[in-house]
Amino acid sequence: MSDNALIEASNLGVRHGETTVLAHVDFRIEPGEIVTVVGPNGSGKSTLIRALIGLEPAASGRVSRAAGLVIGYVPQKLHIDASLPMTVRRFLSLPRRVSDAQAAEALARTGVAGIEQRPLAGLSGGQFQRVLLARALLAKPQILILDEPTQGLDQPGTAGFYKLIEEVRRETGCAVLMVSHDLHVVMSSSDRVICLNGHVCCEGTPRVVSAAPEYRALFGLGTGGAFALYQHVHDHDHDHDEGHGHDHSHPHAAHSHSHDCEHDHA
Ligand SMILES: Nc1ncnc2c1ncn2[C@@H]1O[C@H](COP(=O)(O)OP(=O)(O)OP(=O)(O)O)[C@@H](O)[C@H]1O
């Protein structure tokens, strides 16, 4: 494991039964980085996340995590029984009991102060995602891992959520690894984007990836699209570049493998 990485994978392969879901994936994330994994449905994004956490075995290659790494994980699907009369407060104490003060602080941090006594089942999608984030933050993670955290949110809700993630990163210094389909918004709030399709099609800073032919082919983009939008958003918001030691003037080069990324996996 190289110095400073929180999680690292080399030549990672994962199989589900006879099917190879991921092959030859190299990955690393360092403290304070926001890394987003994008890719079509079924491209192995959740599988990669689960393999990096250790919830799925590697069929080949290896995954290493920093010793004692504290992970705050929000899975893609969380089944909450709507008939279960669980309050937000009670949910925040699962699985680990937290004090009222800690619960209140976490809810305030994620922009939903004072909703302790509301039933979980009655929250809006955006409120629920913020409660999930609050719960993940209570573990004081070194890395937050969020699998499609803005699923079901509208565009302003999604943009607000990503802004919150950046604030959390800025204030706590935690790294963030997330999966997203919200290509446009993600572009403005990630240090690095990994474009996945069973293997890493391309990766690098949002600017580099959004211009990469592999990425554009995979998402069927023309010559404007996400790149133009990313530039527009980014031109007006440079806050997240400050103080994290990421040198955006020397992006990781996007690289392509010999694999064909133009398959339709949707
Ligand atoms: N437990 C499982 N058993 C068998 N196959 C699985 C299992 N979990 C996932 N797969 C298959 O592995 C492939 C990758 O799935 P994965 O959920 O990682 O993709 P994804 O990129 O996260 O997709 P989505 O964008 O739809 O959430 C898919 O073909 C899926 O059907």
Automatic annotation (TrEMBL):
Organism for this UniProt entry: Sedimentimonas flavescens
This protein's name: Metal ABC transporter ATP-binding protein
Entry keyword annotation includes Ion transport: yes
Entries under InterPro entries matching the protein: AAA+_ATPase, ABC_transporter-like_ATP-bd, ABC_transporter-like_CS, Metal_Ion_Import_ABC, P-loop_NTPase
Domain ABC transporter span(s) in chain numbering: 7-222
A UniProt-annotated Pfam family: ABC_tran
Biased composition (Basic and acidic residues): 236-250, 257-266
Single GO molecular function: ATP binding
Top-rank taxon: Bacteria
Record carries keyword Translocase: yes
